[in-house]
Amino acid sequence: MDFETYQKQARQTAIYPDLGKNNIYPTLGLVGEAGEVAEKVKKVLRDKGGIFDDNSKQEIKKEIGDVLWYLANLCSEFQFSLNDVAEINLDKLKKRKIRGKISGSGDNR
């Protein structure tokens, strides 16, 4: 599956207030789900000595899928193509690498 197909299918399952003019809802969902990914990773560190067994990985994978769903719908709210967002991000990172600025901090390095 490609990002365009995913984004269209994710949109078909989107049910939330003011769909089509509500970027706040998917933004909050995105950070919430990202927090759930972090929480599952934290619990593996705490409870399993940092060993990611198959079950832990599958549970994290599900949460990453939720992150992707909210990201796709956030893009739709802004009328961005998820493909374009991915391409722009990779282009930005390649340019940073060429300039030797891949590490460090700041958005415009």
Report on this model:
This protein has 109 residues and is an all-alpha fold. Helices cover 70% and strands 0% of the residues. Helix 2 runs antiparallel to helix 3 (54-77). The two termini are 33 Å apart.
List keywords for this structure.
mainly alpha, globular, 4 helices, 109 residues
Percent of residues in helices comes to: 55-70%
Low-pLDDT ranges: none
Which overall shape is indicated by the principal axes computed on the Cα atoms? globular
- Rg over alpha carbons: 17 Å
Question: Kindly, what is the distance between the CA atoms of the first and last residues, rounded to a whole number of angstroms?
Answer: 33 Å
The main pleated sheet reads as:
none
Please state the average pLDDT score.
96
E-strand count: 0
DSSP helical segment count: 4
Helix/strand/pairing category: mainly alpha
Write a concise synopsis of the structure shown.
The chain has 109 residues and is mainly alpha-helical. It has four helices and no strands.
Lay out the secondary structure.
Elements: H1 3-12, H2 24-47, H3 54-77, H4 82-99
Helix pairs in contact: 1-3, 2-3
